[in-house]
């Protein structure tokens, strides 16, 4: 169990992020173990063309400041999911005198993306060119490069972090998985570490053969945390060919609190037990999740064959 001081610090963080709400119901999981899986891969290894990189390097440190885009008003940049959902094909609130803009980000078109306009042009009757507050960030030194990366992302179709095409306007975004932790079977305190000597900058999670428990943090803006209709886990020796595979269903559990890919505390509700008893030392298995949120017409595969290859490394395990 975690120390009381650390747990109290975590509760304070949650209150600061989500605001104080009077008479909240009692938390039934108040005594849960807080797992600090500090072996998350370094997001510096993500290509700068990926939305997760844009969030990690630009939107979260520069824009999610207190009183700004921290949940106080949209766009909401606290998490990679909320940032994407409140940007891409999301209706604007402010506009120019000609009402030229309909959406904050229009995939493939910077000229009609209000986000790009707010970063580069002063629009009268607005608060000014964004970002307004840059102290403590590297925006001033790197603004041209950062704006160029945002432009490239928009022009390439404003895909989500897993390479999924941008949803049409007014259509709910597909679910994502923004956290992965693997533990010994029936253990929730000692997550397996990643390979620290990986030449790719993103190491596989090192596990023994046998039973291991895989925990994930899925997210969809309209889905209750335990409301996903089905999530399947697949493991293959090929990063792109998942036939034949080792399979296991995820099931909702009383959550553990662990760090997501952005190193923010999140609740992981879903666990699958993977049987790797036939695996041999030195083999690398790639994981894939098939998730249905009950909202999209089809299930979403994470990562998929259209995802950038570094995601295969995020979702990989190395047999010790």
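Q: What amino acid sequence fits the structure above?
A:
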């Amino acid at each position: 169990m975690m120390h009381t001081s650390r747990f109290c610090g975590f509760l304070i963080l949650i209150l600061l992020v989500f605001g104080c709400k009077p008479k909240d119901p009692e938390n039934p999981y108040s005594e849960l173990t807080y797992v600090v899986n500090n072996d998350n891969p370094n997001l510096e290894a993500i290509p700068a063309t990926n939305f997760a990189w844009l969030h990690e390097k630009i939107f979260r440190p520069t824009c999610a400041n207190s009183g700004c885009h921290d949940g106080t008003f949209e766009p909401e940049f606290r998490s990679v999911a909320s940032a994407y959902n409140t940007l891409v094909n999301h209706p604007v609130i402010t506009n120019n005198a000609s009402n030229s803009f309909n959406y904050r980000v229009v995939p493939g078109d910077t000229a009609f993306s209000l986000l790009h306009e707010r970063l580069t042009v002063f629009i009268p009757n607005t608060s000014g060119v964004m970002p307004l507050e840059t102290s403590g960030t590297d925006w001033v030194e790197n603004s041209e490069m950062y704006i160029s990366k945002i432009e490239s992302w928009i022009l390439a179709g404003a895909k989500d972090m897993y390479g999924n095409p941008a949803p049409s306007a007014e259509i709910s975004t597909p679910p994502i998985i923004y956290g992965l932790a693997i533990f010994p079977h029936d253990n929730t305190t000692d997550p397996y570490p990643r390979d620290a000597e990986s030449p790719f900058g993103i190491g596989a999670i090192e596990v023994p053969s046998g039973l291991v428990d895989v925990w994930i943090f899925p997210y969809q803006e309209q889905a209750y945390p335990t409301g996903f209709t089905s999530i399947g886990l697949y493991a293959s020796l090929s990063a792109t060919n998942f036939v034949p595979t080792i399979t296991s269903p995820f099931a909702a559990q009383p959550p553990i609190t662990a760090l997501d890919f952005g190193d923010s505390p999140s609740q992981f509700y879903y666990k699958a037990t993977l049987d790797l008893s036939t695996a041999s030392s030195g083999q690398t298995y790639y994981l894939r999740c098939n998730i249905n949120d009950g909202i999209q017409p089809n299930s979403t595969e994470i990562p998929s064959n259209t995802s950038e290859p570094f995601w295969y490394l995020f979702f990989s395990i190395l047999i010790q």
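Q: And what stands out in the fold?
A: The beta strands are 176-184, 205-207, 211-219, 230-236, 246-249, 251-259, 265-275, 284-292, 300-302, 316-319.
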